Structures are given as structure tokens and as C-alpha cells.
Amino acid sequence: MLRIKRVPTMVSNYQKDTEEQQQVGCGRNCLRSCCLPGANLPLYTFKKVKNMMDEKMESPVPFLDSLLLGEWEDRVQRGLFRYDVTACETKVIPGQSGFIAQLNEGRHLKKRPTEFRVDKVLQPFDGSKFNFTKVGQEEVLFQFEETDGDEAQFFPSAPIDTENSPSVVAINVSPIEYGHVLLIPRILECLPQSIDHKSLLLAIQMAAEAGNPYFRLGYNSLGAFATINHLHFQAYYLAVPFPIEKAATRKISNLDNEVKVSELLNYPVRGLVFEGGNDMLALSDAVSDSCICLQDNNIPYNVLIADSGKRVFVLPQCYAEKQALGEVNPELLDTQVNPAVWEISGHMVLKRKQDYEEASEENAWRLLAEVSLSEERFQEVKDLIFESIACGEDGCETSTRSLDAELDAISSGADHSLVPGNQECLVQQ
């Protein structure tokens, strides 16, 4: 049985539509133009690190344990969370894989519903839907920015530079684990949920800056169980290895920039693993090129950033497509488990006590096997990715469309299938 720190159960006062308004701006102390003038937030600046494989990360501020968790605990005391995640039972499932099961009966009832189509990986940002500029400033732990200085610094209060949209770290008010936060790159630019080179590099930098192998970042694309179409990564601390981190791999390529690409073996979900490289940017670019390729081809996917940013898993998936086509076993659908990045990595968030009590390695394997692409389809996806990476390294023109062109096509009602050759599906959640 895993144990995590216990804190009092609190209910968020800032996520209720019926909240009594304050006398500032719109009254919700949000991150929009109505409330930003004159606002200040804590600021953490990290130094540029060109080679995360060789340079030891040192910081005058204990980033993860002291700052992030300290600020997170402060928000607990303020009552900003929808439920007490520390009251959730958690256990390691017996078996070789070491899947982790958590019973979280309230999360699916209190979590925000999906407000967009899930058959389109790329969709334009819609300001009328929920997005992170609508959260209270109280939910933001700190701004997270790169500095030209020689060392990291923390400023308890710093102005918000609205001209250069800040990246911020905020609490997840519907947490999966203690310390569950969101990294929101360039929050005021209102970017849709799609990875670009700058945002992926920022996420890897955060993992490297934390310097703790038990702190991982995850990403869910639209169609792979992202629930908010505003660019963000999730992160939390879990002091046991994820099963996917222990899975065997087989090397399939060494890129020109020394990034090694492998594929998972003996794991229920097929995926690629990127590691090494001449520097952090090389690794980030290889992963970004892969993600952009998947987005441009409308293939849902998840990303796990592990080993303090030194290893990144890219996991194309098809569960929502199978669900729409009626190809998922009804018993699995009854669990109401949406296999996103954490579930795929081996942290199974279960919503029914019966499923938690009967959790087994076999049941976890059955669910995740439904997520995985077939061997033939995975090979096609690998070919697309390596063609995209090769073009990125050589500077050649790719056949994939830019994000702006894709979003223009979506807005004009153009039809793009989930996977080339397959029919389009719409999943109701």
C-alpha cells in the first residue's frame, strides 16, 4: 500500500460559478485583461542548460520539494481543490509490471466535461470555452521563465509581463496525485492543445530543473483524452517507477544529432522512446518533430517526460476511435476509465470500488491493449514520424501542413480522418 501525506479535505471556492464576486476587475481575479493590470505573481527563473546529460543541475531553491509542493500545500489550506486526493486509496498491483491502482470515485463527477470534438487532434482555440485564463490568480503557483543569468532565482512577487506572455505553473483542481500541477506555456497567447518546439522544450526544461526522477510531465492530445483545448502539460510526483519506465526497449535508430530512438517491447501499448542527443535542444526537437507529425496526420497521442527530462515516450493511441466504432469490450467501457498518459504509463485511476478491489495485472493489460495501435498501423506511423524527423534534420520541405493551415482547414469545415483511410468518428463523453 502506498502512503501519501494527508491534508484536510477542501472544496474549491474559485471554481464555482456561483462564487460571490469581489470588487476587482470581473470579480474572479482571473488571468484576463480585466484583472491583470497591476497584478503580481511569484516568479521562478531557470538558467539555460545546453547539455543536460553532463551538467549537474543545481539551484539555490529546492525546486520540487520546497517550492512547488510548498506552494501546492498552501493552496490546499486556502481551499482551492475540489476534493482531497490524499484520501484516495492507492496500491501497487501484484505482478511483474508493477501497475499502480488508485481509487478516485469523485474525480469523474467533479472534473470538467470535455467541451470539444474528440475526433480532431487539431482544433482552433475557442475563448468561449473554459480555458486557463479564466482561473483565479490564486491557483497559479509561480511564473516559470528562462533567464540569461548563471543561476536559478525565485522572486516571491513579480509583475506579469502581458507583452511577453508568461509561462505559469498552476494547480490541477481535480488532482490525480499529491502535488499535481499544470505547466501552461505562454498562457496569454491562448494556444490550442497542440505541441510546438518551444512548448515541448519548456516541459523538458521543467523536468530537468526539478532534477527528480519521480517527477514526470505528461501530455494528452485532443482525441487522446485531453479535456481542455488550451495548451498545457500535467505533472506530479509519484515515488515509485511507472511500469512503462521499466519496460524493455529495442533500439531502432540513431539520429544525426545522437538522439537514440527505441520502441517499447513486452508492453501493452506500442510506442517510441527518445533519449540522449547532443544536448537538450536536440532531444526536444526530435520529439517535437514527431508530435507535430502526429498532429498533422490527425493521430491522437500521449507523451511522458521521464528521467528528469532525459527520456521521452511518444505513444500514439486509438482508444477513442475504437470506442466510437463500438470495438471496445463493454466491460472495459463500464469502468469509465479514460486511458490518458498516466494510465498508459501504468498509473491506473479507477472510478469504482469494485474495479479497485479486483485490480489485477491482467485487467490493466486488457485495458491498455485496447489503446495500442496494431503492429501494422504502428509501423505506418513510425514511417511517417521518421520521414518527418529526417526532413526536420535536413531542413527539407515536409508534406505535412503547418498548424495555421490545419486550423484554417478545420475552421472552414474540411474533413480530416483520424488516421488516413479510416472513417471520421465523434465520441460523446
Automatic annotation (TrEMBL):
<dbReference type="GO" id="GO:0080048">
    <property type="term" value="F:GDP-D-glucose phosphorylase activity"/>
</dbReference>
<dbReference type="Pfam" id="PF26217">
    <property type="entry name" value="GDPGP1_N"/>
</dbReference>
<feature type="domain" description="GDPGP1-like N-terminal">
    <location>
        <begin position="64"/>
        <end position="236"/>
    </location>
</feature>
<keyword id="KW-0548">Nucleotidyltransferase</keyword>
<protein>
    <recommendedName>
        <fullName>GDP-L-galactose phosphorylase</fullName>
    </recommendedName>
</protein>
<keyword id="KW-0808">Transferase</keyword>
<keyword id="KW-0963">Cytoplasm</keyword>
<dbReference type="GO" id="GO:0005737">
    <property type="term" value="C:cytoplasm"/>
</dbReference>
<feature type="domain" description="GDPGP1-like C-terminal">
    <location>
        <begin position="243"/>
        <end position="390"/>
    </location>
</feature>
<keyword id="KW-0344">Guanine-nucleotide releasing factor</keyword>
<keyword id="KW-0547">Nucleotide-binding</keyword>
<dbReference type="GO" id="GO:0006006">
    <property type="term" value="P:glucose metabolic process"/>
</dbReference>
<dbReference type="GO" id="GO:0016787">
    <property type="term" value="F:hydrolase activity"/>
</dbReference>
<comment type="similarity">
    <text>Belongs to the GDPGP1 family.</text>
</comment>
<dbReference type="InterPro" id="IPR058865">
    <property type="entry name" value="GDPGP1_C"/>
</dbReference>
<dbReference type="Pfam" id="PF26216">
    <property type="entry name" value="GDPGP1_C"/>
</dbReference>
<dbReference type="InterPro" id="IPR058866">
    <property type="entry name" value="GDPGP1_N"/>
</dbReference>
<keyword id="KW-0378">Hydrolase</keyword>
<dbReference type="GO" id="GO:0000166">
    <property type="term" value="F:nucleotide binding"/>
</dbReference>
<dbReference type="GO" id="GO:0005085">
    <property type="term" value="F:guanyl-nucleotide exchange factor activity"/>
</dbReference>
<dbReference type="InterPro" id="IPR026506">
    <property type="entry name" value="GDPGP"/>
</dbReference>
